[in-house]
Amino acid sequence: MLLLGGGMIFIFHKAQGLSVGSSLVEEDKLDLATTLLKPRQMGSSAIPDGRMGLDIGSDSIKTFTEALDTTKTIMWNGPMGVFEFDKFATRTGAIAKKLADLSEKGVTTIIGGGDSVAAVEEVGVAKVMSHISTGGGASLELLEGKELPGVLALDEATPEPCQDSYAISRRHQFNPRTNHVACKPQLKFHPA
């Protein structure tokens, strides 16, 4: 299930032929948005010319919270509106509180991106989220299956597999990406 809000929604509105006023739209992604909309058309409201969409509406909050109740894992990337302004912060706050409630009930909640992290911190629910990362773009790339340079560098820095035949101990580490156990590097102290 994919729930869209915030600035990302306007490209989908435009792909449906709705007016988006002066809201920002990535014109080069219109074909992709049209393709993604084909399986299921969504209801939405047109934005008058000269106006800008700055937050999701109450119907969207109801739809989102009902849909979130059916999930076991949630990845949130990007606020629902321009939450930096109090007038447009309540619905982003409502989503953050809903995720916190679900997280406390055992749902895995992953918050990706600096703005989303700022939103959950602003509402005071950051500590109950399962995972938080200010690397929103990197989080999305990881979900896409792309290789991240930093993760690759860590894999390449992993020591060779241990030749020891005894059971895994604290001086060993398992790397799930390379699927092997390696000896942890031994730190040595060299006095001056």
TrEMBL record:
A cellular component annotation (GO) from this entry? cytosol
For this UniProt record, the keywords arranged alphabetically read as follows: ATP-binding, Glycolysis, Kinase, Magnesium, Nucleotide-binding, Signal, Transferase
Protein name per its UniProtKB record? phosphoglycerate kinase
- According to its UniProt record, the EC number is 2.7.2.3
The reaction(s) catalysed by this protein are: (2R)-3-phosphoglycerate + ATP = (2R)-3-phospho-glyceroyl phosphate + ADP
Family matches, as InterPro entries: Phosphoglycerate_kinase, Phosphoglycerate_kinase_N, Phosphoglycerate_kinase_sf
- In which organism is this protein found? Pisum sativum (Garden pea)
The record's section on Gene3D superfamilies has:
Phosphoglycerate kinase, N-terminal domain
Q: Which residues form the signal peptide?
A: 1-17
Keyword Signal listed: yes
What is a single molecular function from GO for this protein?
Answer: ATP binding
Cross-referenced Pfam families: PGK (PF00162)
What EC class is this?
transferase
- In which pathway is this protein known to take part? Carbohydrate biosynthesis; Calvin cycle; Carbohydrate degradation; glycolysis; pyruvate from D-glyceraldehyde 3-phosphate: step 2/5
Identify its protein family.
Belongs to the phosphoglycerate kinase family.
Instruction: Please list the GO biological process terms of this entry.
Output: gluconeogenesis; glycolytic process
Its required cofactor(s), as named, are: Mg(2+)
Superkingdom of the organism of origin: Eukaryota
